[in-house]
Every structure is written in C-alpha cells, then in structure tokens.
Amino acid sequence: MHALEARHAPVVSLWVWYQVGGRNEVPGTTGMSHFLEHMLFKGTPAHPKGDLDKLLARYGALWNAFTSEDVTCYFETVPKERYPVALELEADRMRNALISPEETEAERTVIVSEREGLENDPSFLLGEQLQRIAFSRHTYGQGVIGSKEEIKLMTRDGLYAHYRRHYAPNNAYFIVAGDAPASELLDRAAAAFGPLEAEAPAEPPKAPEPPQFGEKRVIVRRAGGALPILQIGYHAPCASDPRAPALSMLAVALAGATAGGGETASGRSSRLYRALVDTGLATAVDASFQLMKDPYLFVVEAHLRSGVTHEQVERVILDELARTARDPLSDDEFARTRRQMLSASAFMTDTITWRAFRFGQLLATGAASSLAEWYDRLAAVTAEEIRAAADAVFQEKSRVVGWFTPEAS
C-alpha cells in the first residue's frame, strides 16, 4: 500500500492495481482478464448489481476501470469524507464478486460488440496483427480483448477461477492520493483490506520472447473508407531497464508522441512531423514507448495521405530513425524535447486522480519507486543517451512492419 498527500482539493483518489492482464492468459482464454473486469461491476452479496454505481454517482465520484497486457485496474475519486465508502466497495469486490451465469451471458454480448467496434478501427486491426507477429512465444502477442471466438467460448466457471486466483490483496498494489495525512489514508486502507484472505502467488508467464533474427512483415486488407496506415515496431526494453527514460524522450523527439504511458507533447516541431506531415506525405504521425513489465515494442505509426505509397513513407521513416541513431539531437532540439517531456510529466501528476494513476503505473511496471525518482531519471537523460538508445533499438533484425491497405467495399 502506498499513499500520497495532495492537499489542493478536498478529494481522495484510490486505485487498485491487480497484477493480472493479457500476459497472464493462455491460448483458449485470451481476453479473460478484460471480461472479468466487466464482471466486477455486476455486484456482490453486500452490494447487488447497480449499488456501486448508485452510491458513487450520489457522491459525484469519478470511477472506472481498465485492463492492459500487464494489469487490471479499478479506481474511484471521491469527496474525502466518502473515502471509507469507496474503500469498502473495493475491498468487497476484491473477494466477493458474484459473477453469475446470467450476467456472464449478458456481458458476453457487450464484449463481442466492443470487439466488433474495435475491428472497425484500421489502426487497431493493424496494431493487433503487428503485435501478434512480433511475439512468437511471449503472451504479449495475444493482446488484451481476446479473439471473438474465445470470448464466445468463455465460461462462468473459468472466469470465476481466474478471479479467485488473481484477485487477492497479495496480488495487488493499492495506491491512494488525497487530502489527508498519508498515515491516515493508509490506516483506513489497511483496516479495509487487511482482513481479506491471500491466495497462493500466481506464477508469472513462462514464455520469454526469444531473439528475433530478421525483419517480419504483415499486410492487413479491409474494406472501408480509411486511408492507408503504416506501423513500424522494434523490440524494446521493459520499464525497469536503465534505457527506459531515454526511450521515452526519444518518442517525444520523433513525434511529440504519447511516451512512457500517458505523457503527451506537441509534435509539430518533431522530426517525423516535419518529415511526413509538413511535406504532405502523411496526415498524422505518432511514436510510442510504453512502460511494460517485460520487453515490448517501440512503435511508429503514420496515416498516409491519398495517393502516397507505403514504400515512400517507410523509406522516410527509416531514414529519420537511422539519423537519430547516428547523430545526437542538436542542442536546440534536445532542449525543446526535454522541456516538452518534463512539462508533460509534471502535467500528468497535476490532478489527484492522475497523480495516483502515475504512481501506480510506475510501481506496477517496475519503472520507478516514486514520482520523484521517475522525474529525476527523465531530467538526467542526455542527448547522447537518446542517440545510444535509438542505435540499440532501431535494428533491422528486430523490426516488424505492418501495412494497412483499404479495399473497395
């Protein structure tokens, strides 16, 4: 359990980070963690379906949940006097969720519909295929939402067993930030979660990804009015790797992109924006390095303008990546990138809700033990470290390339 005092608003934000996600699933159960996330809103004996929503809405709370490859996370931001209520709700559903057969069937339809909605997004479709070919052994290749076929086959008993195995106090990080002394916030949390029974620790995935020895490619064709998309991924280190801060900075230098799991910066002055958007080759460009428990991918994505070929854009991107790996950023470019990155990092922790989120993300992925430590690591990155990280990651043998090509309906 970890607490942060945040005195600028009379609210408390609490987050429960369960150490289970897509990486903990095996073929035949892909999407189970995400399905289970939905079921945790379907009630317990003490709080029947809808009770949680009614209580939190009455207090003007902000609440939600998400599932990633690494974690499943639930949060509430409530008026500070309602902190005990939010704690009781989270502690209750940690061990007492009903997960009835009837609700399982009803929610299956919702999740299949969610999956079909995602399939209408060419960027999602291409990214899913890129992830699949990038990881031949590691469970990161399975994604999060799962295949439609496996969603349809999922059973209530399978979901409940997954729940009992992973939803326990010894398999979760509890993070709280709010307008009260840290000791008080933690004492209340300990009283709520302390009596709950632990489970035998779940074994981590046992399929490390072997080295890749040559470029892989995939082409996705689908009917629709979308423009072509290009994605280029490179195998990259995990969040706890010493190069993670430099790779986060590198993403901002390349595209002003989402970097490090949530930080954003304007991309108009970035290398790939100038090379692709300003020249009329692309409508948008993005670069991302995500903080993950295990080695994942550094990904560049470009949405092509009509009449522009994948070959043209790919050549420009690879030239820019090679230049970044060869020559350090200029003094002005490095100063601008550093300023954008540090400003975005500070902005991420400006509200109580996002401060708690960011702290939990750093702990859950192993990136840092505190917000200050991560900020200091970013601030210490040099232009040469960015170049060296680019040189280490942007290797042809570890590259995966994906093309989305729209087809006539």
Which topology of the largest domain does CATH recognise?
Cytochrome Bc1 Complex, Chain A, domain 1
The CATH superfamily of the largest domain is known as: Metalloenzyme, LuxS/M16 peptidase-like
> How many H/I helical runs?
15
**What is the CA-based Rg, rounded?**
22 Å
CATH architecture of the largest domain: 2-Layer Sandwich
Oligomeric description of these chains: single chain
Q: For the record, what CATH class of the largest domain applies?
A: Alpha Beta
Order of helices and strands: EEHHEEHHHHHEHEEHHEEHHHHHE
The domain tally reads: 2
Structural class: alpha+beta
Number of strands: 10
Helix fraction? 40-55%
The largest sheet, given as strand count, sense and whether it forms a barrel, is: 5 strands, mixed
Overall residue-averaged pLDDT value: 91
Give the CA-based shape.
globular
Give the DSSP E fraction (strand runs of 2 or more residues). Answer: 15-25%
Q: Can you walk me through this structure?
A:
By secondary structure, the protein is an alpha+beta fold. It folds into 2 domains: 2-193, Cytochrome Bc1 Complex, Chain A, domain 1 (2-Layer Sandwich); 216-407, Metalloenzyme, LuxS/M16 peptidase-like (Cytochrome Bc1 Complex, Chain A, domain 1, 2-Layer Sandwich). Helix content is 43%, strand content 18%. The strands form 2 sheets. A 5-stranded mixed sheet has the order 1-5-2-4-3, sandwiched between helices. It has a 5-stranded mixed sheet with strand order 6-10-7-9-8, sandwiched between helices. β8 and β9 (296-304) form a beta hairpin. The chain is globular. Mean pLDDT is 91; it is low at 257-266.
